[in-house]
What does this fold into?
Amino acid sequence: MHIDDNNENDATQEPEGQEEDHSRFTPPPPPQQEAPAPEVEGLERWQRSRIELAKVQAAAGRVRDELRKVIVGQEELISLLLAGLFSGGHVLLEGVPGIAKTLAAKLMAQSLDVGFSRIQFTPDLMPSDVLGTTVFNMKTSDFSFNAGPIFSNVILIDEINRSPAKTQAALFEVMEEYQVTVDGETYPMGFPFFVIATQNPI
It folds into this structure.
């Protein structure tokens, strides 16, 4: 029996006219990245920012001058109060009695021509004494909210360290979110809202 060697050679040979496909070995082209959009920063933008800062600086200078008329020798105290006011934060003043902590808070409100409220913290002070409470109105047969002394612009909290922890915790929401929630109702604070707390180290 004879085996045709030509049949084996024909089986291993590729048919004529077909080229080997190398596409699967070719790496895909890298993805095209879009060019970032050019930033629009013109001269007008920087000039406008400079003008706004100049207005803030002028306002801070006027308030500083008013405080200096009464408070003498407390430049650091005045600078810290202005920094807290214009940064949207609050200030804690710690010091012995007689360094014009309370007077500085009153003068700050007078210089800004805004409302002022003083809250004397005591060991028996309740959160409702600060925030307010909801009472029943006999005339209208409905509940109404009586706002507490916290609803003002410049708030002086005197001797904050004397109050219980639950009363201090009631200040977290109003100082952070500028609102008060009582009995499920939310009451926003007015602008500006600046809390100056004092405490004595003794």
